[in-house]
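Reproducibility note. Readers wishing to regenerate the assembly model reported in the main text can use the exact inputs given here. Chain order matters: entities are listed in the order in which they were concatenated for prediction.
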Amino acid sequence: GQQVMQIPQYQHVQEGEDFTTYCNSSTTLSNIQWYKQRPGGHPVFLIQLVKSGEVKKQKRLTFQFGEAKKNSSLHITATQTTDVGTYFCAGWSSSNTGKLIFGQGTTLQVKP
Amino acid sequence: DGGITQSPKYLFRKEGQNVTLSCEQNLNHDAMYWYRQDPGQGLRLIYYSQIVNDFQKGDIAEGYSVSREKKESFPLTVTSAQKNPTAFYLCASTSDPRARDQPQHFGDGTRLSIL
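Running the prediction on these inputs yields the following structure tokens for the assembly.
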């Protein structure tokens, strides 16, 4: 079945360092969404990318959607302790079953 | 404020007992979802419903049951057949899953443990 894979699973950085998580789908996606889950919290929608090669920025966060619409990345510049959490990418099932397929997530720890 | 309300926040289950987790939304969303999250793991889909009186199994439906009698409500029952129920359960909703461009909104979750 359709899969969405994320790497790395965990990342520890020193505050101020950059961080990147990568997302790869086994099939072409119509769009990709990114969510953030703080420790003890629930996932919160961050952004959606739709167009091939699209790049969007939210302050220190940069999101990219690959040209083939099968991969995506989230890059955080100069991490802060408030960036701690798990970042998930997700794509809607290509078989139109109404399912959103989530990646396994990347958990970011930031050392002050 | 519109949102998703899950209750209870914490739940303990005895051996052989069925327990029901509540999920209510006032967002007027068509679709609702239940996910299970284990420590350090991603989200696994248990059941989902795109419309009232209809629902589909997700990837890990065994040992769980749901109903969708009202648009606002999508309760999840963890049956005694689910031998390893300890996890964090998240309910989510989306306005129109057929559009395939809507975000999912999540409740605060229920933490279920075995006594």
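We highlight two features of this model. Chain B touches chain A through 25 residues (CB under 8 Å). The mean pLDDT of chain B is 93.
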